[in-house]
Design a protein that fits this description.
The protein is an alpha/beta fold. It has two domains: 236 residues, Aspartate Aminotransferase, domain 2, CATH 3.40.640; 129 residues, Aspartate Aminotransferase, domain 1. The protein is 41% helix and 14% strand. The protein is built from 14 helices and 14 strands. It has a seven-stranded mixed sheet, sandwiched between helices. The protein has a three-stranded antiparallel sheet with strand order 9-10-14. A two-stranded parallel sheet has the order 1-11. The longest helix has 22 residues. The chain is globular, with a radius of gyration of 21 Å.
Length: 381
């Protein structure tokens, strides 16, 4: 059977309609969008049309959209830009954030990072957030949908709390843009980040939304691009592809959601049926992101399966998924997200993440469950 790709939270397969939209800007219309000659002006027009499309789909004005290389750059730019603009150094976040948020905070010893507690399903306590906000707080940064366990934060409620206390709110919406309606005006957020390759667009391009009243200064300098807010030559084909991908994602959102949710339910149902005493799902599987299933395999004797070996065996069988772990100096580390919700290290290391897309099929879910059962039987016999 053709390999089954279930690592869509890492990256999705680009839609062919996106590739078609990008192709002219890789071949004929290759001009630098900052050049003043005819070819440059032509590509600049295309970039601004793409900006208008993205702004319309997020319900904001084009001027509030800044193009970047992706979610990591956007998160860094927002955090560092807010601290620079406000002169404050206190940031409230959670231990479950993506490393693109955590590492900029950890690696700057001038920043006071305040971590909120999280429940076993990965939810924060809004009352705790209220109690930790003060006049010295520069920013609250909490993701919308967790990339490892799928838990979904109530970002509109969080934004309201932050607005009441006069504190800026940033949400990493990389795993939710294109899957859920994101109306930045209704949500009243100050900053969001998005990355095209998470919703069937190209890699290496993303954007950040910045509220017109937000205190923020540019982080990446060296050019006058993006109204001097982000230096560097614009990735014209990527920007065109991102706008097309987001347009398609919005047009087909409900259809994709129904399809992927059906697959998710089949996967979870199959896990419970085949491995009732072994497989444990993590996060909020009912109300979270509908494309992510994170499952651990603790053993009755208190040990746990070797997640890396499980992943490699599935890879051999043609099932591509991930374990959410980071490899540092040759040592596989347990997921910080799973440790953060109270899962012990052995069980965390036994965990794998399946993430689904519009391209997956029911037969692929059946195949995955069949191969998973064969692999687990070998590993536990």
């Amino acid at each position: 059977m053709t390999p089954v790709y279930l690592d869509n939270a890492a990256t999705t397969k680009p839609d062919t309609r996106v590739l078609e939209a990008m192709l002219p800007y890789l071949a004929e219309d290759y001009g630098n969008a900052s050049s003043i000659h005819g070819l440059g002006r032509k590509t600049n027009v295309a970039v601004e049309e793409a900006r208008e499309t993205i702004a319309r789909l997020l319900n904001t004005k084009p001027a509030q959209i800044i193009f970047t290389s992706g979610g990591t750059e956007s998160n860094n730019a927002i955090i560092k830009g807010v601290l620079k603009a406000t002169g404050k150094n206190r940031v409230i976040t959670s231990p479950l954030e993506h490393h693109a948020v955590l590492h900029p905070l950890e690696h700057d010893n001038t920043i006071e990072t305040v971590f909120l507690g999280v429940s076993k399903t990965g939810h924060i306590d809004l009352d705790e957030l209220k109690s930790k906000l003060n006049s010295e707080t520069a920013l609250v940064s909490l993701m919308h949908v967790n990339n490892e366990i799928g838990t979904k934060n109530p970002i509109k409620e969080i934004a309201e709390i932050c607005r009441e206390h006069g504190v800026a709110f940033h949400s990493d919406t990389v795993q939710s843009v294109g899957k859920f309606p994101i109306d930045v005006t209704d949500l009243d957020v100050d900053f969001i980040t998005l990355s095209a390759h998470k919703f069937y667009g190209p890699k290496g391009v993303g954007a950040m939304y910045i509220h017109p009243d937000a205190l923020w200064q540019p982080w990446m300098e060296g050019g006058s691009q993006e109204r001097k807010r982000r230096g560097g030559t614009l990735n014209v084909p990527g920007i065109i592809g991102m706008a097309k991908a987001l347009q398609l994602a919005h047009e087909e959102m409900e259809e994709n959601k129904r399809h992927i949710t059906k697959l998710k339910n089949a996967l979870i149902g199959g896990l419970k049926e085949r491995f009732p005493d072994l497989a444990v799902t993590n996060g909020d599987t009912e109300h979270g992101g509908y494309h992510i299933v994170n499952v651990s395999f603790p053993m009755p004797d208190g040990n746990a399966l070797d997640g890396e070996m499980l992943l490699l065996n599935l890879d051999i069988e043609g099932v591509y998924c991930s374990n959410g772990s980071a490899c540092t100096s040759g040592a596989v580390e347990a997921s910080h997200v799973l440790l953060g919700i109270g899962i012990d290290e052995k069980t965390a290391k036994s965990s794998i993440r399946f993430s689904l897309s519009k391209y997956n099929t029911e037969s692929e879910i059946d195949y995955t469950l069949e191969k998973l059962e064969q692999v687990l039987n070998r590993m536990t016999s």
